[in-house]
Amino acid sequence: MAILGGTGNIGEGLVVRFAAETSHTIIVGSRDASKAADRANEYESRLTNHGIEQTIDHADNTTAAGDADIIVLAIPPHHVGDTIEELVDQEVLTGQLLISSVVGMQGDELGLHFDPPSVGSVTELVAERAPASTATAGVFHNLATDRLADLDADFDVDTLVVATDEEVRQQVIALVNELARIRALSAGPLANVAEVESVTPLVITIAGYNDNRHDVGVRFT
Amino acid sequence: MAILGGTGNIGEGLVVRFAAETSHTIIVGSRDASKAADRANEYESRLTNHGIEQTIDHADNTTAAGDADIIVLAIPPHHVGDTIEELVDQEVLTGQLLISSVVGMQGDELGLHFDPPSVGSVTELVAERAPASTATAGVFHNLATDRLADLDADFDVDTLVVATDEEVRQQVIALVNELARIRALSAGPLANVAEVESVTPLVITIAGYNDNRHDVGVRFT
Protein backbone atom coordinates (compact mmCIF):
# COMPACT_ATOMS: atom_id res chain seq x y z
CA MET A 1 0.00 0.00 0.00
CA ALA A 2 1.47 3.34 -1.11
CA ILE A 3 0.43 6.46 0.79
CA LEU A 4 1.20 9.32 -1.61
CA GLY A 5 1.74 12.40 0.52
CA GLY A 6 2.54 10.05 3.38
CA THR A 7 4.67 12.83 4.87
CA GLY A 8 1.66 15.07 5.53
CA ASN A 9 -0.93 15.24 8.26
CA ILE A 10 -3.51 12.68 7.16
CA GLY A 11 -0.81 10.63 5.44
CA GLU A 12 1.14 10.32 8.68
CA GLY A 13 -1.88 8.95 10.52
CA LEU A 14 -2.70 6.45 7.81
CA VAL A 15 0.91 5.24 7.58
CA VAL A 16 1.38 4.66 11.31
CA ARG A 17 -2.07 3.08 11.82
CA PHE A 18 -1.82 0.72 8.86
CA ALA A 19 1.76 -0.16 9.77
CA ALA A 20 0.90 -0.73 13.43
CA GLU A 21 -2.36 -2.60 13.02
CA THR A 22 -2.23 -4.50 9.72
CA SER A 23 0.14 -6.68 7.73
CA HIS A 24 0.20 -4.42 4.65
CA THR A 25 3.61 -3.40 3.37
CA ILE A 26 3.48 0.38 3.60
CA ILE A 27 5.33 2.70 1.22
CA VAL A 28 5.57 6.37 2.16
CA GLY A 29 5.38 8.39 -1.04
CA SER A 30 6.38 12.03 -1.48
CA ARG A 31 7.25 14.28 -4.41
CA ASP A 32 10.64 14.47 -2.68
CA ALA A 33 12.08 10.96 -2.25
CA SER A 34 14.51 12.04 0.47
CA LYS A 35 11.67 13.57 2.49
CA ALA A 36 9.81 10.27 2.15
CA ALA A 37 12.89 8.46 3.47
CA ASP A 38 13.26 10.79 6.45
CA ARG A 39 9.63 10.47 7.43
CA ALA A 40 9.56 6.70 6.96
CA ASN A 41 12.51 6.41 9.35
CA GLU A 42 10.77 8.68 11.83
CA TYR A 43 7.59 6.59 11.67
CA GLU A 44 9.60 3.39 12.14
CA SER A 45 11.21 4.86 15.26
CA ARG A 46 7.83 5.83 16.63
CA LEU A 47 6.53 2.30 16.06
CA THR A 48 9.64 0.87 17.71
CA ASN A 49 8.91 3.03 20.75
CA HIS A 50 5.54 1.29 20.87
CA GLY A 51 7.17 -2.13 20.71
CA ILE A 52 6.28 -2.63 17.06
CA GLU A 53 9.09 -3.68 14.71
CA GLN A 54 7.82 -2.81 11.24
CA THR A 55 9.74 -1.72 8.17
CA ILE A 56 8.20 1.21 6.34
CA ASP A 57 9.28 1.63 2.74
CA HIS A 58 9.66 4.95 0.96
CA ALA A 59 9.95 6.33 -2.56
CA ASP A 60 8.92 9.22 -4.75
CA ASN A 61 5.16 9.19 -5.40
CA THR A 62 5.32 7.63 -8.86
CA THR A 63 7.66 4.81 -7.84
CA ALA A 64 5.63 4.18 -4.68
CA ALA A 65 2.40 3.96 -6.70
CA GLY A 66 3.97 1.57 -9.22
CA ASP A 67 5.14 -0.79 -6.48
CA ALA A 68 1.82 -0.95 -4.61
CA ASP A 69 -1.44 -2.89 -4.84
CA ILE A 70 -3.35 -0.02 -3.22
CA ILE A 71 -2.62 3.68 -3.79
CA VAL A 72 -3.92 6.17 -1.23
CA LEU A 73 -3.82 9.84 -2.24
CA ALA A 74 -3.09 12.06 0.77
CA ILE A 75 -1.58 14.94 -1.19
CA PRO A 76 -2.67 18.60 -1.39
CA PRO A 77 -5.80 19.04 -3.57
CA HIS A 78 -4.08 21.27 -6.12
CA HIS A 79 -1.55 18.50 -6.87
CA VAL A 80 -4.12 15.78 -7.51
CA GLY A 81 -4.77 16.35 -11.20
CA ASP A 82 -1.07 16.55 -12.08
CA THR A 83 -0.19 13.58 -9.90
CA ILE A 84 -2.76 11.32 -11.59
CA GLU A 85 -1.60 12.50 -15.02
CA GLU A 86 1.98 11.70 -14.03
CA LEU A 87 0.97 8.19 -12.92
CA VAL A 88 -0.84 7.71 -16.23
CA ASP A 89 2.06 9.10 -18.28
CA GLN A 90 4.55 6.85 -16.47
CA GLU A 91 2.19 3.88 -17.00
CA VAL A 92 2.31 2.82 -13.38
CA LEU A 93 -1.48 2.43 -13.02
CA THR A 94 -1.82 -1.26 -13.80
CA GLY A 95 -4.92 -2.32 -11.93
CA GLN A 96 -4.25 -0.98 -8.43
CA LEU A 97 -7.08 0.20 -6.23
CA LEU A 98 -6.90 4.01 -6.26
CA ILE A 99 -8.18 5.75 -3.14
CA SER A 100 -8.55 9.49 -2.52
CA SER A 101 -8.68 11.05 0.94
CA VAL A 102 -8.20 14.55 -0.46
CA VAL A 103 -10.52 17.52 0.06
CA GLY A 104 -10.44 20.95 -1.55
CA MET A 105 -10.84 23.72 1.02
CA GLN A 106 -10.51 27.48 1.07
CA GLY A 107 -10.15 29.50 4.24
CA ASP A 108 -11.22 33.03 5.04
CA GLU A 109 -11.45 35.04 8.23
CA LEU A 110 -14.72 33.32 9.25
CA GLY A 111 -13.87 29.72 8.67
CA LEU A 112 -12.83 27.04 6.27
CA HIS A 113 -15.04 26.19 3.29
CA PHE A 114 -15.52 23.34 0.90
CA ASP A 115 -13.88 24.33 -2.37
CA PRO A 116 -14.14 21.44 -4.81
CA PRO A 117 -12.75 21.29 -8.34
CA SER A 118 -15.28 22.00 -11.09
CA VAL A 119 -16.14 18.31 -11.49
CA GLY A 120 -17.68 18.53 -7.99
CA SER A 121 -15.17 16.72 -5.79
CA VAL A 122 -11.54 15.65 -5.70
CA THR A 123 -12.55 11.99 -5.75
CA GLU A 124 -14.48 12.47 -8.99
CA LEU A 125 -11.51 14.37 -10.44
CA VAL A 126 -9.30 11.36 -9.64
CA ALA A 127 -11.78 9.01 -11.34
CA GLU A 128 -11.97 11.29 -14.36
CA ARG A 129 -8.20 11.49 -14.83
CA ALA A 130 -7.43 7.83 -14.12
CA PRO A 131 -7.86 5.15 -16.82
CA ALA A 132 -11.53 4.16 -17.08
CA SER A 133 -10.84 0.64 -15.83
CA THR A 134 -9.29 1.89 -12.54
CA ALA A 135 -11.15 0.90 -9.39
CA THR A 136 -11.50 4.25 -7.63
CA ALA A 137 -12.76 5.07 -4.17
CA GLY A 138 -12.98 7.94 -1.70
CA VAL A 139 -12.45 7.34 2.02
CA PHE A 140 -10.53 8.73 5.06
CA HIS A 141 -11.76 12.30 4.50
CA ASN A 142 -13.07 13.28 7.92
CA LEU A 143 -10.78 11.67 10.43
CA ALA A 144 -9.51 13.18 13.63
CA THR A 145 -6.00 13.24 12.18
CA ASP A 146 -4.00 14.10 15.30
CA ARG A 147 -5.50 11.18 17.18
CA LEU A 148 -5.14 8.96 14.13
CA ALA A 149 -1.39 9.60 14.20
CA ASP A 150 -1.15 9.13 17.97
CA LEU A 151 -0.96 5.42 18.72
CA ASP A 152 -1.80 6.10 22.36
CA ALA A 153 -5.05 7.88 21.53
CA ASP A 154 -8.27 6.17 22.47
CA PHE A 155 -10.91 7.17 19.96
CA ASP A 156 -13.56 5.79 17.65
CA VAL A 157 -14.59 7.55 14.47
CA ASP A 158 -16.44 6.73 11.28
CA THR A 159 -15.28 7.14 7.74
CA LEU A 160 -17.52 7.16 4.69
CA VAL A 161 -16.72 5.08 1.63
CA VAL A 162 -17.72 5.89 -1.93
CA ALA A 163 -16.51 3.87 -4.90
CA THR A 164 -16.99 3.13 -8.56
CA ASP A 165 -19.10 0.06 -7.78
CA GLU A 166 -20.35 -2.07 -4.93
CA GLU A 167 -17.52 -4.61 -5.21
CA VAL A 168 -14.88 -1.89 -4.83
CA ARG A 169 -16.88 -0.33 -2.00
CA GLN A 170 -16.90 -3.63 -0.10
CA GLN A 171 -13.17 -4.05 -0.73
CA VAL A 172 -12.49 -0.62 0.78
CA ILE A 173 -14.84 -1.22 3.71
CA ALA A 174 -12.92 -4.44 4.45
CA LEU A 175 -9.64 -2.52 4.22
CA VAL A 176 -10.85 0.13 6.70
CA ASN A 177 -12.12 -2.53 9.05
CA GLU A 178 -8.58 -3.85 9.43
CA LEU A 179 -8.03 -0.72 11.54
CA ALA A 180 -9.18 -0.91 15.13
CA ARG A 181 -10.47 2.61 15.65
CA ILE A 182 -12.19 3.47 12.39
CA ARG A 183 -15.55 2.13 11.29
CA ALA A 184 -16.44 2.27 7.59
CA LEU A 185 -19.92 3.13 6.38
CA SER A 186 -21.04 3.17 2.78
CA ALA A 187 -22.07 6.45 1.15
CA GLY A 188 -22.75 4.78 -2.19
CA PRO A 189 -21.34 5.74 -5.59
CA LEU A 190 -18.76 8.42 -6.40
CA ALA A 191 -21.61 10.83 -7.21
CA ASN A 192 -22.29 11.15 -3.48
CA VAL A 193 -18.79 12.17 -2.46
CA ALA A 194 -19.15 15.97 -2.50
CA GLU A 195 -21.22 15.84 0.69
CA VAL A 196 -18.63 13.50 2.23
CA GLU A 197 -15.67 15.75 1.38
CA SER A 198 -17.65 18.76 2.60
CA VAL A 199 -17.60 17.39 6.16
CA THR A 200 -13.83 17.96 6.36
CA PRO A 201 -13.89 21.78 6.54
CA LEU A 202 -16.86 21.40 8.89
CA VAL A 203 -15.02 19.30 11.48
CA ILE A 204 -12.12 21.75 11.33
CA THR A 205 -14.56 24.64 11.84
CA ILE A 206 -16.14 22.84 14.80
CA ALA A 207 -12.69 22.35 16.31
CA GLY A 208 -12.12 26.08 16.05
CA TYR A 209 -15.41 27.24 17.55
CA ASN A 210 -15.78 24.92 20.55
CA ASP A 211 -13.63 24.80 23.65
CA ASN A 212 -11.60 21.68 24.34
CA ARG A 213 -11.96 20.43 20.77
CA HIS A 214 -8.94 20.68 18.54
CA ASP A 215 -9.22 17.41 16.67
CA VAL A 216 -12.78 16.48 15.70
CA GLY A 217 -14.03 13.29 14.07
CA VAL A 218 -17.51 12.11 13.18
CA ARG A 219 -19.68 9.26 14.30
CA PHE A 220 -22.94 8.51 12.50
CA THR A 221 -25.37 7.22 15.07
CA MET B 1 -42.08 29.25 20.18
CA ALA B 2 -43.66 28.87 16.75
CA ILE B 3 -42.63 25.88 14.63
CA LEU B 4 -43.58 26.87 11.08
CA GLY B 5 -44.15 23.67 9.15
CA GLY B 6 -44.76 22.00 12.50
CA THR B 7 -46.90 19.45 10.67
CA GLY B 8 -43.92 18.01 8.77
CA ASN B 9 -41.23 15.50 9.59
CA ILE B 10 -38.63 17.62 11.37
CA GLY B 11 -41.34 19.96 12.66
CA GLU B 12 -43.13 17.09 14.35
CA GLY B 13 -40.01 16.03 16.22
CA LEU B 14 -39.24 19.56 17.37
CA VAL B 15 -42.82 20.16 18.55
CA VAL B 16 -43.11 17.00 20.60
CA ARG B 17 -39.61 17.25 22.09
CA PHE B 18 -39.90 20.93 23.05
CA ALA B 19 -43.43 20.36 24.39
CA ALA B 20 -42.40 17.27 26.36
CA GLU B 21 -39.11 18.50 27.76
CA THR B 22 -39.32 22.28 28.14
CA SER B 23 -41.71 24.92 29.42
CA HIS B 24 -41.97 26.80 26.12
CA THR B 25 -45.45 27.49 24.80
CA ILE B 26 -45.42 25.72 21.43
CA ILE B 27 -47.43 26.90 18.44
CA VAL B 28 -47.73 24.54 15.49
CA GLY B 29 -47.74 26.64 12.33
CA SER B 30 -48.83 25.54 8.87
CA ARG B 31 -49.89 27.27 5.67
CA ASP B 32 -53.21 25.52 6.32
CA ALA B 33 -54.55 26.53 9.76
CA SER B 34 -56.91 23.54 9.99
CA LYS B 35 -54.03 21.15 9.29
CA ALA B 36 -52.08 22.86 12.10
CA ALA B 37 -55.07 22.31 14.41
CA ASP B 38 -55.37 18.63 13.50
CA ARG B 39 -51.69 17.96 14.05
CA ALA B 40 -51.54 19.93 17.32
CA ASN B 41 -54.38 17.80 18.66
CA GLU B 42 -52.61 14.66 17.52
CA TYR B 43 -49.37 15.73 19.24
CA GLU B 44 -51.27 16.55 22.44
CA SER B 45 -52.79 13.06 22.44
CA ARG B 46 -49.40 11.51 21.96
CA LEU B 47 -48.01 13.50 24.89
CA THR B 48 -51.03 12.51 27.02
CA ASN B 49 -50.22 8.86 26.24
CA HIS B 50 -46.80 9.56 27.73
CA GLY B 51 -48.35 11.05 30.86
CA ILE B 52 -47.60 14.63 29.79
CA GLU B 53 -50.45 17.12 29.90
CA GLN B 54 -49.36 19.95 27.66
CA THR B 55 -51.43 22.27 25.49
CA ILE B 56 -50.03 22.77 21.99
CA ASP B 57 -51.28 25.86 20.21
CA HIS B 58 -51.83 26.12 16.47
CA ALA B 59 -52.30 28.76 13.79
CA ASP B 60 -51.44 29.60 10.21
CA ASN B 61 -47.70 30.28 9.81
CA THR B 62 -47.97 34.07 9.84
CA THR B 63 -50.19 34.24 12.93
CA ALA B 64 -48.02 31.68 14.70
CA ALA B 65 -44.88 33.70 13.95
CA GLY B 66 -46.47 36.92 15.17
CA ASP B 67 -47.46 35.35 18.48
CA ALA B 68 -44.06 33.80 19.23
CA ASP B 69 -40.74 34.87 20.77
CA ILE B 70 -38.84 32.28 18.75
CA ILE B 71 -39.70 31.27 15.18
CA VAL B 72 -38.38 27.96 13.88
CA LEU B 73 -38.63 27.36 10.14
CA ALA B 74 -39.29 23.70 9.37
CA ILE B 75 -40.95 24.26 6.01
CA PRO B 76 -39.97 22.98 2.55
CA PRO B 77 -36.96 24.86 1.13
CA HIS B 78 -38.84 26.25 -1.88
CA HIS B 79 -41.32 27.98 0.44
CA VAL B 80 -38.72 29.75 2.57
CA GLY B 81 -38.24 32.90 0.51
CA ASP B 82 -41.98 33.52 0.11
CA THR B 83 -42.67 32.73 3.75
CA ILE B 84 -40.13 35.27 5.03
CA GLU B 85 -41.46 37.88 2.59
CA GLU B 86 -44.97 37.23 3.89
CA LEU B 87 -43.80 37.67 7.50
CA VAL B 88 -42.11 40.93 6.50
CA ASP B 89 -45.15 42.16 4.52
CA GLN B 90 -47.48 41.37 7.41
CA GLU B 91 -45.09 43.14 9.80
CA VAL B 92 -45.01 40.25 12.25
CA LEU B 93 -41.21 40.17 12.60
CA THR B 94 -40.78 42.41 15.63
CA GLY B 95 -37.59 41.19 17.24
CA GLN B 96 -38.15 37.46 17.47
CA LEU B 97 -35.26 35.04 17.17
CA LEU B 98 -35.55 33.50 13.69
CA ILE B 99 -34.20 29.98 13.32
CA SER B 100 -33.89 27.89 10.15
CA SER B 101 -33.67 24.10 10.13
CA VAL B 102 -34.31 23.94 6.39
CA VAL B 103 -32.04 22.30 3.79
CA GLY B 104 -32.28 22.37 0.01
CA MET B 105 -31.84 18.91 -1.47
CA GLN B 106 -32.30 17.31 -4.86
CA GLY B 107 -32.55 13.57 -5.39
CA ASP B 108 -31.56 11.44 -8.35
CA GLU B 109 -31.25 7.70 -8.91
CA LEU B 110 -27.89 7.58 -7.08
CA GLY B 111 -28.65 9.56 -3.97
CA LEU B 112 -29.73 12.81 -2.45
CA HIS B 113 -27.64 15.93 -2.99
CA PHE B 114 -27.17 19.29 -1.38
CA ASP B 115 -28.98 21.82 -3.55
CA PRO B 116 -28.76 25.23 -1.91
CA PRO B 117 -30.26 28.48 -3.15
CA SER B 118 -27.89 30.77 -5.04
CA VAL B 119 -26.94 32.68 -1.87
CA GLY B 120 -25.26 29.43 -0.72
CA SER B 121 -27.62 28.10 1.94
CA VAL B 122 -31.21 28.35 3.10
CA THR B 123 -30.11 29.92 6.38
CA GLU B 124 -28.33 32.74 4.55
CA LEU B 125 -31.42 33.21 2.34
CA VAL B 126 -33.50 33.63 5.51
CA ALA B 127 -31.04 36.21 6.85
CA GLU B 128 -31.03 38.03 3.52
CA ARG B 129 -34.83 38.28 3.32
CA ALA B 130 -35.47 39.13 6.99
CA PRO B 131 -35.07 42.68 8.31
CA ALA B 132 -31.39 43.42 8.94
CA SER B 133 -31.94 43.70 12.68
CA THR B 134 -33.37 40.16 12.95
CA ALA B 135 -31.35 37.75 15.06
CA THR B 136 -31.02 34.78 12.70
CA ALA B 137 -29.64 31.32 13.33
CA GLY B 138 -29.40 27.90 11.71
CA VAL B 139 -29.76 24.73 13.79
CA PHE B 140 -31.59 21.34 13.85
CA HIS B 141 -30.48 20.42 10.32
CA ASN B 142 -29.06 16.96 10.74
CA LEU B 143 -31.20 15.25 13.34
CA ALA B 144 -32.39 11.67 13.32
CA THR B 145 -35.95 12.89 12.81
CA ASP B 146 -37.84 9.63 13.39
CA ARG B 147 -36.18 9.15 16.75
CA LEU B 148 -36.61 12.82 17.55
CA ALA B 149 -40.36 12.41 17.15
CA ASP B 150 -40.43 9.15 19.13
CA LEU B 151 -40.50 9.98 22.83
CA ASP B 152 -39.53 6.40 23.66
CA ALA B 153 -36.37 6.53 21.56
CA ASP B 154 -33.07 6.46 23.37
CA PHE B 155 -30.55 8.40 21.32
CA ASP B 156 -27.96 11.14 21.51
CA VAL B 157 -27.11 13.34 18.58
CA ASP B 158 -25.37 16.64 17.96
CA THR B 159 -26.69 19.67 16.18
CA LEU B 160 -24.58 22.51 14.83
CA VAL B 161 -25.43 26.13 15.52
CA VAL B 162 -24.61 29.08 13.28
CA ALA B 163 -25.89 32.57 13.97
CA THR B 164 -25.55 36.24 13.13
CA ASP B 165 -23.32 36.82 16.14
CA GLU B 166 -21.89 35.12 19.21
CA GLU B 167 -24.66 36.33 21.52
CA VAL B 168 -27.35 34.82 19.31
CA ARG B 169 -25.28 31.66 18.96
CA GLN B 170 -25.09 31.27 22.74
CA GLN B 171 -28.84 31.93 23.03
CA VAL B 172 -29.55 29.12 20.53
CA ILE B 173 -27.06 26.75 22.18
CA ALA B 174 -28.85 27.33 25.51
CA LEU B 175 -32.20 26.68 23.80
CA VAL B 176 -30.97 23.37 22.34
CA ASN B 177 -29.53 22.35 25.67
CA GLU B 178 -33.02 22.45 27.18
CA LEU B 179 -33.56 19.24 25.21
CA ALA B 180 -32.26 16.06 26.80
CA ARG B 181 -31.05 14.17 23.76
CA ILE B 182 -29.49 16.85 21.57
CA ARG B 183 -26.13 18.49 22.18
CA ALA B 184 -25.40 21.83 20.53
CA LEU B 185 -22.00 22.68 19.09
CA SER B 186 -21.04 25.99 17.55
CA ALA B 187 -20.16 26.16 13.86
CA GLY B 188 -19.59 29.91 13.97
CA PRO B 189 -21.17 32.58 11.77
CA LEU B 190 -23.84 32.13 9.11
CA ALA B 191 -21.09 31.98 6.47
CA ASN B 192 -20.25 28.46 7.68
CA VAL B 193 -23.74 27.01 7.29
CA ALA B 194 -23.48 25.51 3.80
CA GLU B 195 -21.29 22.71 5.13
CA VAL B 196 -23.75 22.19 8.00
CA GLU B 197 -26.80 21.96 5.73
CA SER B 198 -24.85 19.68 3.40
CA VAL B 199 -24.71 16.99 6.10
CA THR B 200 -28.48 16.46 5.83
CA PRO B 201 -28.52 14.75 2.41
CA LEU B 202 -25.44 12.83 3.59
CA VAL B 203 -27.11 11.28 6.65
CA ILE B 204 -30.09 10.33 4.46
CA THR B 205 -27.70 8.74 1.93
CA ILE B 206 -25.95 6.82 4.72
CA ALA B 207 -29.33 5.56 5.94
CA GLY B 208 -30.02 4.26 2.44
CA TYR B 209 -26.70 2.51 1.87
CA ASN B 210 -26.14 0.73 5.19
CA ASP B 211 -28.16 -2.11 6.66
CA ASN B 212 -30.07 -1.52 9.87
CA ARG B 213 -29.81 2.26 9.53
CA HIS B 214 -32.93 4.11 8.53
CA ASP B 215 -32.64 7.17 10.74
CA VAL B 216 -29.11 8.53 11.04
CA GLY B 217 -27.85 11.36 13.22
CA VAL B 218 -24.36 12.74 13.78
CA ARG B 219 -22.07 12.93 16.75
CA PHE B 220 -18.86 14.98 16.56
CA THR B 221 -16.30 13.22 18.69
- What is the count of distinct domains of chain A? 1
CATH topology of chain A: Rossmann fold
Gyration radius of chain A, rounded: 16 Å
The strand line-up of the biggest sheet of chain A is 3-2-1-4-5-8-9-10
Most extensive protein-chain contact, per-chain counts: A-B, 37 and 37 residues
The oligomerization state is homodimer
How large a portion of the residues of chain A is in β-strands, by DSSP E? Answer: 15-25%
Beta-strand segment tally of chain A: 11
Write up this protein:
Two copies of one chain form a homodimer. By secondary structure, chain A is an alpha/beta fold. Chain A has one domain: NAD(P)-binding Rossmann-like Domain (Rossmann fold, 3-Layer(aba) Sandwich). Chain A is 39% helix and 21% strand. Chain A contains nine helices and eleven strands. In chain A, the strands form two sheets. Chain A has an eight-stranded mixed sheet, with helices on both faces. A two-stranded antiparallel ribbon of chain A has the order 6-7. In chain A, helix 1 crosses helix 2 and helix 4 runs parallel beside helix 5. The first copy, chain A, is globular and about 40 Å long. Chain A starts with a strand and ends with a strand. The model of chain A has no long low-confidence stretch (mean pLDDT 97).
